Amino acid sequence: ETGVTQSPTHLIKTRGQQVTLRCSSQSGHNTVSWYQQALGQGPQFIFQYYREEENGRGNFPPRFSGLQFPNYSSELNVNALELDDSALYLCASRRTAGNSPLHFGNGTRLTVT
Amino acid sequence: GQQLNQSPQSMFIQEGEDVSMNCTSSSIFNTWLWYKQDPGEGPVLLIALYKAGELTSNGRLTAQFGITRKDSFLNISASIPSDVGIYFCAGGSNDYKLSFGAGTTVTVRA
Predict the structure, then answer these.
(1) What are the tens digits of pLDDT across the range A39-55?
(2) d(CA A19, nearest CA chain B) in Å
């Protein structure tokens, strides 16, 4: 069973630029979530996608957006990057039915300079 | 910000010791989960709890879902060097959004 995979593993961007991060869900999982983890903190929920639509969002501005594709893979897009966007971005997936916990990928480390 | 209070913030372990950490919240959760995160990796699920009062074990790990649904603890018995890392508690609500604690950093005592 293939786990959650994310790309790229590391990325350096300049303030004001845009970035796209990618995620492939674990096999059999149809719900994907994105989390931001700042250094020394726990992950914070950005949003969740199911059936290619956003169905839950945390306290993040609209410049954070996402997509889910028919094969359940997903993208996180961040526009107008700010220095505070530097963090580890984690993708997680689960099955929608029943008590199915979230399984995380290894994340993309984004540095904004 | 974080809704969960996780303690202790850090701890030192000696091989063979039993260790305990806990998580409290002002909010009720329907699910409690415990994850471990090693440097450069994502959180790995250790134990998932779905029912108030539930006590679940996974090898040397034992976790409980508090009866008030506002707290949980994780015990590690007979610790070994590979137990070092950062442990996170997470509370889940009906929409399955997880709220995480700030983590407990476990280090080997020299």
Answers:
(1) 999 999 999 999 999 99
(2) 20
